[in-house]
Structures are given as C-alpha cells and as structure tokens.
Amino acid sequence: MTLTASKLDKPKVAALVLKQMQRAEKTVAKAFRAFIDDQVKSIIAELNASQAAVASVLFNPAEWDAKLIDTMQPVLGKILFEGAVAEILLHKKKVSDLKATTATEAVAEYDLDFPFATELPTWMIDAVNAQLDDTFSRDYWQAINETTRDDLSTLIRGAVEDGLPIADIASRIRRDFGSVYSRARAVNVARTETTASVNGGHMIGMQRLEDAGLVTGKKWSSVLGNTTRTSHAKLHNVKTEGVAGLFDLNGVLVPFPSHPDLPAPDRCS
Question: Quick check: is 93 in a domain?
Fold first, then answer.
C-alpha cells in the first residue's frame, strides 16, 4: 500500500515508491533481527549466570524498551527523510530552504548516508522529528518486548516439564529463538513500519509541495494481490482533497496506509 500525489497519477511513480519501500523493508528487518539476536544472547548469558530457568529472571521487557527505540528510530528516521526528499524530486523540484548547519545535526542523529543528507532543510527535520515522536509514543513498541517475554515463558515452561538441564534449555532457546523466529518477527515489524514510514515521508514532502501550489491531494494505491484485504482494495485509487485529507479505513480516518492510529488488523502487513 503506497501513497502518491494526485498530480503524479502514473503507474511508474507508484512502482518507484514500491521499490523504495522494498529496499527500506530489508533495512528495517536487518536492524530488528540484530535486536532479537542481542536479546537471545542476553537471555542465555543470564541463564548460565543465574542457573535459574525462570523467564522473569532471564528477561525483563521494560529493560529493552529504550534499546528497541534506539535501534529502530535511526532506521525509520532515515526512511522518513528519504521519502520526503524523493517526493519533492519526483516533481523535479529542488529541496528549498537548505541549511547545512541544522541538517548536520540530523545527519549525526540518524546516521544518514545518502548524498543530499547535509542539505536537509529545517522544516523537513522538524516534520520528521514530529512523526518519529508520534510513532514511538505508541504502546505497540512495548508489546514487542512483551511478546518476547511471553514466547520465552512458553519455551521455558515446556523445557522444565521435559526435565531439561540448564545447558539443554540454553540450546533450546538458541534453536527456537534462532533465525526462523527472528526472521518471522522481523518481516512483520519491517513491513508494517516501513509502509508507515515511507508513506509518512512522502506525505511530508507533499505538504511542502502543496504550500507551493504544486500538489492538490494524494491517492491511495493498493497492490491488489491475493493477500490484499478487501477494505484496503476498496480504497485503491481513492483521492483526497488536499494533502491533509483523510482516508476512511473501516471507520478509522487516517492520512496514509499503516498509520499508527489504525488497529493491528488493518495496520500490520
């Protein structure tokens, strides 16, 4: 699901945004898998040190909440910036009001590496920061680590019932929380957050273009594949009056696909 400016109502533009989304998704998934791998290493180290096969001893979700945000914020911030700049460049316009001094701070904070990073204007930095603040204020980030705790509790309970010693419990954790587990969770998180960040970034660009009289609205584009939800397919090609216009997805008004205001069934890809 992608967002395009209504004046750029061309298949190749939607395809370009989709390609950007696919590239970004790989980056998000890689970061999240590394985060899960660090959790597994920590759990096993604590298990070996404490010799206590108790999930609450081995893993405290609250201790990982800040680490999760520290891991994901730079990645999603970069995607937002890229989306905003890409939207403006799609209109063959230069990013105006460029000030390298303020942009340098954003580059350092988000570890950006694309060529125009040092030319990011203040208005774009402020808009990206506001969206990041909103994104990471949501409760679902805490739920990610709570899911890890719950999965660990289930695993340990089964291992104890099987009478496994500590060394074998550690082996089971490595196996069950290994690549298959981390990949499955990473794909879900990456698809959802990438869709939100790419679309959110493009909307930031659209808002600036609208101020300049270059954009009058936006359009919802769905892939229309076998897994596309009916409610999402119904919004395909729906346009808004003005960039701030909202889409009605199952009774929830949102500015773009995968917006954090949506419930999980309509947000998660």
Answer: yes
> Average per-residue pLDDT in the chain?
86
Global pTM reads: 0.85
Confidence of residue 242 (pLDDT cuts 50, 70, 90): very high
Domain count, the chain: 1
Domain containing residue 91: 23-215
> Does residue 267 belong to any structural domain of this protein?
no
In a domain, 233, yes or no: no
- What are the DSSP calls for the chain, one per residue? -EEEEGGG--HHHHHHHHHHHHHHHHHHHHHHHHHHHHHHHHHHHHHHHH----HHHH--HHHHHHHHHHHHHHHHHHHHHHHHHHHHHHTT-PPPS--HHHHHHHHHHHT--STTGGG--HHHHHHHHHHHHHHTTSTHHHHHHHHHHHHHHHHHHHHHHTT--HHHHHHHHHHHTSHHHHHHHHHHHHHHHHHHHHHHHHHHHHHHHHHTTS---EEEE----TT--HHHHHTTT-B-SSTT--EEETTEEESSTT-TTS-HHHH--
Whether 41 maps to a domain, the answer reads yes
